[in-house]
Design goal:
With 273 residues, the chain is an alpha/beta fold. It has eleven helices and eleven strands. The strands form two sheets. The protein has a nine-stranded mixed β-sheet with strand order 2-1-3-4-5-8-9-10-11, with helices on both faces. A two-stranded antiparallel sheet has the order 6-7.
């Protein structure tokens, strides 16, 4: 199943409009290119509607908000909705400040999102209207574990049903769900948390997968999460004792670039609940 998702990305090469943060913008562009899609970055309100018109998907990431980019997000989102495009929200750091939380909530109110992807603390903030995060990282108290997986799956399904979006919660155990089915994914490596922007890269990757597979958004989002986690495993296996997180970041992108559809199918570790 996931094999076909990656084949479609490489076959269709969708153009993805990214309104993302300036910390990870280059890595987001490169991961989109590595998977076989094509990125374009634009957040100025004077052009975002034109840019998103020529694209197949829109990735909105609130990691470094300012008033100019916020207006661009609303304009691009409305245009993408009008065109029936895939739209993804990455609520980076929701719960860390009123600006981030309020912007994310308002975006959800005014834009129909295909996918909402974040860590468990960010998603809880959106679901409950308030929350706590460790900056842009998940609060340890919110972590999804085997002990609380059943309740976490129910929470994600309920929020997906309420929001009308596929919800992807990423962490040690990833959960990707709509209101009825949840993929519980166990790909990845703990060192991925030492690389700034792996979540941002995943959001861009997910937008590409969903744009290439618009009729199967749940499976496409799950495939993207598996691909990113598998890339983390492959990249870690390449590291030498002298390598660190900078090398690891590059190896993750390389792993996506070289990943075959068959490799993704074989390496994906998940169960459906």
């Amino acid at each position: 199943m996931f094999q076909k998702m990656l084949e479609n990305v490489r076959g269709k090469c969708p153009l993805i409009h990214n309104i993302t943060n300036y910390v990870t913008v280059n890595d987001c562009a490169n991961i989109v290119l590595a998977c076989g899609a094509s990125p374009i970055m634009s957040d100025d309100q004077s052009e975002v509607e034109e840019i998103t018109t020529i694209c197949g998907g829109l990735n909105i990431n609130i990691g470094t908000l300012n008033q100019r980019s916020i207006e661009g997000m609303f304009r691009a989102g409305a245009k993408a909705n009008a065109l029936g495009h895939v739209v993804l929200l990455d609520p980076v750091g929701a719960g860390a400040s009123a600006l981030r939380t309020n912007t994310a909530v308002e975006l959800m109110e005014k834009i129909k999102f295909t996918v909402i992807r974040g860590n468990i603390s960010e998603i809880k903030t959106l679901a409950l209207g308030s929350g706590t995060t460790k900056g842009v990282d998940a609060d340890v108290a919110d972590a999804v574990t085997d002990a609380n997986l059943d309740s976490a799956v129910k929470f994600v399904k309920d929020f997906a049903a309420k929001s009308g979006a596929i919800v992807a919660v990423t962490g040690a155990i990833d959960i990707v769900a709509d209101g009825e089915r949840a993929f519980c994914i166990r790909n990845g490596h703990p060192m991925m948390s030492a690389v700034t922007g792996t979540g941002c890269q995943l959001s861009a990757l997910t937008a590409a997968f969903c744009a290439a597979n618009p009729d199967k958004p749940l499976e496409a989002a799950a495939a993207a999460v598996c691909a990113m986690g598998l890339a983390g495993e492959i990249a870690h296996a390449r590291l030498t004792p002298l390598d660190g997180n900078a090398t690891y970041r590059n190896y993750i992108i390389d792993a996506i670039y070289h990943m075959t559809p068959a490799q993704l199918e074989e390496g994906a570790k998940y169960e459906v609940r």
